[in-house]
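Incident review: delayed structure delivery

Summary: a single-chain prediction request sat in the queue longer than the usual turnaround. Root cause was a stuck worker, restarted by the on-call engineer. No data loss occurred. The affected request and its eventual output are reproduced below so the record is complete for anyone auditing the incident later.

Affected input:
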Amino acid sequence: MLSREELVEKAKKIKIMAFDVDGVMTDGSVTYDQNGIEYKTFNVKDGHGLVRAEKSGFITAIITARNNGTVKHRAENLNITELYQGQKFKLPALEEILKKYNLGFENVSYMGDDLPDLCILEKAGLSCCPADAVDEVVEVCDFVSSKNGGRGAVRELCDFILDAQGIVKERTVSEGKRS
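Output delivered after worker restart:
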């Protein structure tokens, strides 16, 4: 297990924040209506973390095995830089992103929760997972969130990386101002 100082040093190199969806950006549940339409529930705090990362100049990416219109809509809503759906093998998608931006694995944080994510987690500069990831994933990750997937894990990681890089949180009107 890495010390906090070692984690911060890895986080300082991150330029791409990439994520799986099911079990990371959601709690892993899949809901269908009577017509077979799939629904997903996303956490708005996670979304705020991703928006903050994107506005701070990070490349944000989703790499997921499933292909779903809800994910496309969420990615557009959050201005996700790169969206790769239907990726049964995820590593080639990440390699394509790295090539496009002329970056290396040391510049990537990736958050995954299950066995299909191991191929990226074993190469990412900062490998990350939610608290409820499968044991095999937890074992290889540098950063294990204190939060479960779909319950703030993404936000916790975004905040950690932004803080490590000295990016100050902006107050918004909804947070109010004190004189």
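Verification: The chain has one domain: 4-28+40-168.
Action items: add queue-age alerting; document worker restart procedure.
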